Amino acid sequence: MHSGPAIALTEISKRFGDGPLVLDHVSLSAQPGEIVAIVGPSGCGKSTLLRLVAGLLKASNGSIEQAGPEINPAFIFQDATLLPWATVEQNIALPLRLKGHSRKKQEKVARHWAGRVGLEEVLHYYPRQLSGGMQMRVSIARALSLSPNLLLLDEPFGALDAITRNRLNEELLDLHRDTDWTAFFVTHSVNEAVFLSNRIIILGRNPGRVSAVIENPLQFPRDSHTRESLEFQQRVAETTARLHEVLGCESA
Ligand SMILES: Nc1ncnc2c1ncn2[C@@H]1O[C@H](COP(=O)(O)OP(=O)(O)OP(=O)(O)O)[C@@H](O)[C@H]1O
Q: Domain ABC transporter spans what residues (predicted)?
């Protein structure tokens, strides 16, 4: 059973300074351990929404309520942002080092997470020696090193080839099975949104608004065979149709 935080945004609006309204009365929620996918066109406020959920930005209006454990968020971005002069192990241990944990603890935690993402053989490699997919695994391991209970993923796999992306989707769900986090996952891929999420939020833009909330009852566990199922393909087709319906000719 998952014990991550439950999060509810109610009527959230956001404006930067005296600029235009970026988010307008956005309401959405995640239950403990749920993965909520956010899909929408460029500039509709997806990244802003993640930063609001993490408490890095303050909403202009509306409220964000959390239930369960106090949130301990971690971000994963499309750019792995690894330190080029540090090894895989040192990159994964960085958050612990910054928090002043002992070397022994840094090593133990980094090796644990490197093992969980399949990097135990390359602990002493530098980022330039890794493929894009491996760099993303380091980024995931680094994000998980402080045992977050809320993951905010901002198009993390958008720059990867389709095969690597699918594999990382599967690995992320494997990690999710035995770790306690609630997640908001921004993606431009309907396929990815359907594969990963419990619920898909479609955001429209100018200003960013919830255009549709699509429940996704596709059963867990999901693996590579899930994509071949008729149910998965139907959900992708229905979600794509809904996206076109609510966003008109705007592409996500
Ligand atoms: N710190 C800021 N100050 C002023 N405006 C900002 C700031 N952050 C974001 N914005 C504006 O808010 C709007 C939404 O930006 P945001 O990055 O949240 O969109 P997005 O949906 O994540 O876009 P993309 O899919 O292209 O990454 C944009 O018009 C952007 O210029």
A: 7-230
CA distance 48 to 172: 23
Q: Which residues line ligand 1 (CB under 6 A)?
A: 16, 19, 22, 40, 42-48
Q: Take residue 226 and report the two structure tokens written for it.
A: 């899930």
pLDDT (0 to 100) of residue 1:
55
Beta-bridge mates of residue 74: 151
* Token code pair at residue 205: 């833009």
Domains along the chain with CATH numbers: 25-72+149-251 (3.40.50.300), 82-147 (no CATH)
Q: State the virtual CA torsion across 164, 155, 51, 101 in degrees, nearest 10.
A: 20
The number of C-alpha atoms within 13 Å of 153 and in the hemisphere containing its C-beta is 32
- Paired tokens of 121: 């053989």
Between the CA of 19 and the centroid of ligand 1 the distance, in Å, is 11
Q: What six digits make up the tokens of 87?
A: 């090894």
Q: What pLDDT does 209 receive? A: 95
What's the pLDDT tens digit per position in 52-90?
A: 999 999 999 999 999 988 999 999 999 999 999 999 999
Q: Is 110 exposed, middle or buried (0-12, 13-18, 19+ CB in 10 A)?
A: buried
Beta carbons within 10 angstroms of residue 228's beta carbon: 8
H or E element, residue 234: helix 230-247
pTM over 0.80: yes
- Distance CA(185)–CA(183), nearest Å, equals 6
